[in-house]
Amino acid sequence: MTNIFEFLQNHFYITFVIGVAMLILGGHLLVEGSVVIAKKLGVSTLVIGLTIVAFSTSSPELALNIIASMNNHGSLCLGNIFGSNIANIGLVLGIGALICKLPVTGQVVKKEFPWLIFATCLVGFAAALLPTLNLALGICLLILFAFLMRHWFALGKDKNSKVGEQSDDVVPDVACSATTAIAMLIFGLVLLTLGGKATEIGAVTSAIHFGMSEILVGSTIVAIATSLPEVVTTIIAAKKKHPDLAVGNVVGSNIFNILLVLPITIFVNPIQAPENVLFYALTMIGMTVLAYFLTLDYRLKRKEGGILIALYIAFLIGSAFI
Predict the structure, then answer these.
(1) What sign does the dihedral 319-316-80-196 (CA atoms) show?
(2) How far is CA 104 from the centre of its chain?
(3) Which of 29, 86, 155, 219 is most exposed, with the fewest beta carbons within 10 Å of its own?
(4) Closest CA to 38 of 211, 125, 156, 135
(5) pLDDT tens for each residue of 151-188
(6) pTM of the full predicted structure?
């Protein structure tokens, strides 16, 4: 076992790439298996789209954070969450808007985005002001997450909802038996676990090798890698003329990262906030608020997509000097 870990650390760049690939494949299998099981249990397609599909794009972050937190790499965990949310706004939404103008429904603008801003500010200021993100904060975040889940389930019962009308576009149509679905779900979880460990080894070793801080590696390299499912989903949604899915995917994924991934990470091991966390917290809050104001006219235009991408590039450059 020692020889295996030495090999993985010595070839950290290969380990990182393999780990990310396993995270993405594992998340894909997890969602497809879960959707089949949920449909067979009679769960509405809207609820599946807002919960299982949104969770699937956040599963790489969750898998990595659990493994990293168990090994006391809290800064890497926090950087991964903050960096993923920044990447989802600046990179993912920006790319989607460049591909096509993205209409945004009133449900997202009036309800989901304000909740995302509230949760983002709560976590951002907590990380900047508190020396340790502890169990009390984790419990508060999970309570808020439970409230939103109740809201989404209630929304799923509203057959006249605009979001409900698009729910079939959100949920992949996977035809397979319940046994195959369970096997996909289990195999997906295994890949997520192994991929999380491999990505953690690759990321931490990279930080040591290049003299970078864990939060810098987590918020840039790891965050971009674990945000690939969102990038793929947004590009496909935009090309297939389902633009609201592109925006909803980002908003939902960011909510899951803050209100589910972070508290679970804290429960595994409380996070000591790094010294330069204020930069990442303010960037995450600022990008989220900006994206909200850009969608107030119920669309995200190509020029605005270019602005988001430019700001994300500025964030990457600024991170190198913090």
Answers:
(1) negative
(2) 20
(3) 155
(4) 156
(5) 776 765 554 444 444 444 444 555 677 788 888 878 87
(6) 0.77
**Alpha-carbon separation of residue 147 from 69, 151, 152, 162, 269 (angstroms):** 26, 6, 9, 21, 24
**C-beta separation of 284 from 278 below 8 A:** no
Here the tokens at position 270 are 């409380």
CB atoms within 10 A of CB 320: 9
Exposed, middle or buried by CB within 10 Å (0-12, 13-18, 19+), for 321?
Answer: exposed
Which residues on neighbouring strands pair with residue 133, listed in sequence order? 271
Query: Could you give the C-alpha distances from 27 to 53, 72, 191, 273, 316, in angstroms and in order?
Result: 10, 24, 8, 28, 26
CB atoms closer than 10 angstroms to residue 187:
15
CB burial of 146-173 (b: ≥16 within 10 Å; e: otherwise) equals: eebeeebeebbeeeeeebbebbeebbee
- pLDDT tens track for 49-97: 556 666 666 777 787 788 888 888 888 889 989 999 999 999 888 988 8
Q: What is the DSSP string of 220-279?
A: IIIHHHHTHHHHHHHHHHHHTT-HHHHHHHHHHHHHHIIIIIHHHHHHHSPEEPPTTHHH
Q: Which two tokens stand for residue 44?
A: 């509405």
Q: What is the mean pLDDT of residues 270-278?
A: 89
Query: How far is it, in rounded angstroms, from Cα 196 to Cα 215?
Result: 17
Query: Please, what are the domains in the chain?
Result: 2-321 (1.20.1420.30)
